[in-house]
Design brief:
alpha+beta, 6-stranded mixed sheet, 6 helices, about 30% helix
Length: about 190
């Protein structure tokens, strides 16, 4: 059962501040200390996550799947899945990435897509699709979701709950733009490799 937005906000408040009181201080905030301690606790699961990514690679052989865990930057483990694409000489070149996040704050996950447009090696545009997943990527996204559910027992966070605004500062996100999605998964869903 998915926790309510109010329950998830109460959890997020433990790890993210509601003001900027500690921004210019040398010492970490109480939320920072709890967040760092939680990551130290959850970091022991990194080998299990790595094994999960390998299993996922085997389940979707037409894609490359990679572990994406930028340390304390995100409150989640993440897998990035890159569908194999034919190399055309057309300009501009469009690439897709399917991202699966498993929150460390609650037993929840999300899967979203990022479309990037390149002209040569220059990124011209990046767009995040939190939902619905584009039809051509639905099978990949479903496979990622099924595997996260089976391996970790997590529940998908519904988009309408994920988009609930929260009065918290999450990395570079600040109210009123901050949502539960940012607090539980990543403050920069489009900032992937």
């Amino acid at each position: 059962m998915t926790p309510s937005a109010e329950e998830l906000l109460a959890i997020a408040r433990l790890y993210w501040g509601s003001d900027l009181a500690y921004v210019f201080r040398q010492e970490p905030s109480p939320e920072d200390l709890r967040y760092q301690a939680l990551w130290e606790e959850k970091d022991v699961e990194r080998p299990r996550w790595g094994a999960f990514v390998k299993t996922l690679r085997a389940a979707i052989p037409d894609c490359d799947a990679w572990d994406y865990a930028p340390g304390l930057a995100n409150p989640s483990f993440c897998v990035l899945v890159y569908p194999h694409q034919e190399q055309h000489m057309m300009r501009p070149r469009i690439t897709w990435t399917v991202a699966g996040y498993l929150s460390i704050l609650a037993p929840l996950y999300t899967v979203h897509c990022v479309r990037r447009v390149f002209l040569g090696k220059h990124l011209m545009e990046s767009k995040v699709f939190l939902g619905p997943v584009p039809l051509e990527l639905q099978g990949i996204a479903d496979t990622v979701a099924r595997h996260i559910e089976a391996e970790f027992g997590a529940t998908a966070l519904p988009l309408e709950v994920a988009q609930t605004p929260v009065p918290l500062y999450v990395n570079f996100m600040k109210p009123p733009e901050t949502t539960l999605f940012h607090a539980l998964f990543t403050s920069e869903p489009g900032n992937i490799l």
